[in-house]
From TrEMBL:
Record carries keyword Repeat: yes
Top-level taxon in the UniProt lineage: Bacteria
Residues the entry annotates as binding GTP 2: 203-210, 255-259, 320-323
Assembly and oligomerization: Associates with the 50S ribosomal subunit.
NCBIfam families per UniProt: GTPase_EngA, small_GTP
Gene coding for it: der
Protein name: GTPase Der
The family this protein is said to belong to: Belongs to the TRAFAC class TrmE-Era-EngA-EngB-Septin-like GTPase superfamily. EngA (Der) GTPase family.
General function of this protein: GTPase that plays an essential role in the late steps of ribosome biogenesis.
Keyword match Ribosomal protein: no
GO molecular function: GTP binding
Amino acid sequence: NRIVAIVGRPNVGKSRLFNRLARRRISIVHDEAGITRDVISTEIEEGRYTLLDTSGLGLTGSDTPQRITAAAEQQVDFAIDTAGLILFVIDGLSGTTALDEQIARKLRRAKAKVRLVVNKADFDEARVDLAEAYRFGLGEPISVSAEHGHGEGRLREAILDALGPAPEPDGEADDAGVENAEEAAPQPYKSREKRPLRLCFLGRPNVGKSSLSNRLLASERLIVSDMPGTTRDAVELPFTFTGRNGRSYPFSLIDTAGIKAATKLAAPVEYFSRLRSLDAIQRADVVFLVLDALEGVTQQDKAIAGEAVKERKPIVVVVNKWDLVHAAFEKPEGLKGFASERDYREKYERAVFERLFFTPGAPLIFASAHSELALDRMMNAAVKLDRTLEKKLPTGRLNRLLAELTERTPPPVVGSRRFRIYYATQTGRRPFRIRIFCNREDRLPESYRRYLESGVIREFKLEGCPVYFDLVGKE
Ligand code: GDP
């Protein structure tokens, strides 16, 4: 990975070095790049890597020598787990100490690359005891003066050398939804690139999956039947959808046999059809979850929705057969218990979000295969979700947000202590994957996880796209 962490015992000049590399003055770094009170990060060399200063980690204020040693250990452990490259800073003027030795011992066993930096080589390198530095067994030391800038160029080069070439930024011709590309987290991402957007219809038998598919494909390629369970094979059908605005967009429909009720089919058929649906969900970029307008949200809908949620796919909820609801309210008797079509729609909407646990902001569309109601809105929703999936979450903004969220509503105390976030960075897309370095992953209660998740979704406008937190505990 392209995270560079600075470690070293207190007073060797870590913060100075951080500021020197960040080309910032101390006060500004703390105000702007400060993410949590514990770890400070900033993007360096146009985002070619992220630099971390771990100095604050583990310190409490009233620090005894034992506390300082423990804190240094914690900082080094954190760096080992987090960073691809560690800059181990020692003080060239005052010489090495037992704590330096202790840190070096840990670093020699680390998988991450380590570069030894001898600081305070201010004017006269000869005064710095490099021979002592070599004894750490961490390769050739780089001498610098964080204070005056001596050796800075060499250090910058050494860092870039150690990291190797930066991955190519995603060639994204389409700029919609992609923001701050230059500030992007530097990990490689999955991108849909040039292939068509893959869709699948998911829903219980008879909700109208095949009818909707047929409408979209504008042909009778799929057999629609009043008998549940007539579409048997999962196949991919490419098609182009042209919206009302005249723009065409390439799609591919993964047709599935649907998830059948166990009572309707013999067990092995049921088993294979489930597998096929799962395969379709996994292959899809966006899942259309189809519900029946008259039947409402059933237990089976709930189970089926769960499958898509589990696979972390963005979902468009399609309430099909709306023509029947509309027709009912055309008649004087309407539908029992509902004042109007609008009242029915509002109650339906509430039922969906109360009974199905979706990613916040999943689009809900009232449609009809028969009257071709809202087909273009379905497709637009899918395209919008797909674009959103391409977003990059700038590390600085992400960490500032998490710091704000945890300040506004602190995590509950679990056991005797609170969940605490040190640092977070996006590590993937489709789905959004955010690695969070924290004190202990088991201190994050589900409700608080959802609070953080919806905060991230709101901040980065990821409505409808699942966000996955990958927690790495540090204690
Ligand atoms: P699937 O099992 O989910 O693929 O459902 P089908 O597409 O086979 O549709 C099941 C039944 O519902 C068929 O009789 C369709 O004609 C009917 N149907 C599908 N969509 C609509 C719709 O929008 N409006 C109405 N009124 N009936 C529909």
